[in-house]
C-alpha cells in the first residue's frame, strides 16, 4: 500500500548539490549526471496536489478477488486490435518472476483469463520477433476496479509497434539502443489530471542515476522534443519519455518547483528489460505507482 509523501521529508532546496535529504544520503551523481541534470526547472507546477501528505484509502480485502477478465490487445498508438499476440499476467505485479497466466489473443486481439480485482498486477504483450511487428511491451501497477458482477469486461492491454518504438526516438533525434529500454508515462495530480511543469528523475536503490538514458517531455501537440525546448511536462498532457534506460530495477520520481524549492511529489518502481517499452504513470502522493479506483476502497 502506498503512502502519501510528507512535504518535510521529500523536499530539496534549489541551492542543494543533490538529493542528500533522501534516505539513501546519495547525491545521485554518475559521471556528471547529477540530480540537477534532470531536475532544474523553476517554473511553478500546475495541478491539484491537496492529497499530498495524506494517507490514501485502503482497498477492501473483500474486493480483492479473482474474476473473469475479457480483454483485448490494442496498439498503443493507433488503438487497432493486435491479432494473435501473446499476453502474460503477473498477479504479484513483479515481471521478474514467473507469469501467473500466459495466453494467446484471437484474430481480433480478444482473450479471456482470470485476474484479481483491486490488486496491483502487471502484464506484458509480445508477438513473434521474426515478424518485426511489435516490441515487448510491459505495464505494471495496474488495478482493475471492483465489479459487482464479478467480470472485468472490455479492458484493453497495450502493445507498442516497432514503428512507434522508432518514431519517438526519431522525432527527438536520437537512436534507441535495443539493449536498453524505453519508459513512457504521464505525471498525474490528485484528480488524475495531468500535472504541468514536473520533471522526472531516475535512480537505482543506492540513489545513483543511470549511466545512460535521457528524459524528454512533450509539447502541446503531444510530440516529444528536446529538453531545451520543453524542459518539463506540459500542463495539457503531463507526458514524458525516457529513452535508453539500462536493464535493471529503477525508481522513477516526479519532481516539481513549488516556488521555493524542488519537491518530490510521487514515484514508481520499474524492472526494465532489454528491447522493451514500459508504460508507467506517476501519481501525486503515491510512492509505488499504484492508484486504487474509488470502487476498490473500503466503504465504497
Could you characterize what this model shows?
The structure is a single chain. The chain is mainly β and 300 residues long. The chain folds into two domains: 11-56 and 165-283, Immunoglobulin-like (Sandwich), CATH 2.60.40; 61-158, Immunoglobulin-like (Sandwich), CATH 2.60.40. The protein has helices at 35-38, 162-172; strands spanning 11-13, 66-75, 86-90, 101-104, 110-116, 121-126, 134-142, 151-161, 181-188, 199-203, 214-218, 224-225, 239-245, 248-257, 261-272, 276-279, 282-283. β14 and β15 form a beta hairpin. The longest helix is centred in the middle third of the chain and has 11 residues, at 162-172. It is globular. The two termini are 17 Å apart.
Summary keywords:
300 residues, mainly beta, Immunoglobulin-like, four-stranded antiparallel beta sheet
**Number of domains as seen in the coordinates:** 2
CATH structural fold name of the largest domain? Immunoglobulin-like
Approximate shape: globular
Number of helices: 2
Estimate what percentage of residues fall within beta strands. 35-45%
Q: What kind of sheet is the major sheet?
A: 13 strands, mixed
Radius of gyration: 19 Å
N-C termini distance = 17 Å
Q: Could you state the order of secondary-structure elements as H and E?
A: EHEEEEEEEHEEEEEEEEE
Q: Tell me what the CATH architecture of the largest domain is.
A: Sandwich
Structural class: mainly beta
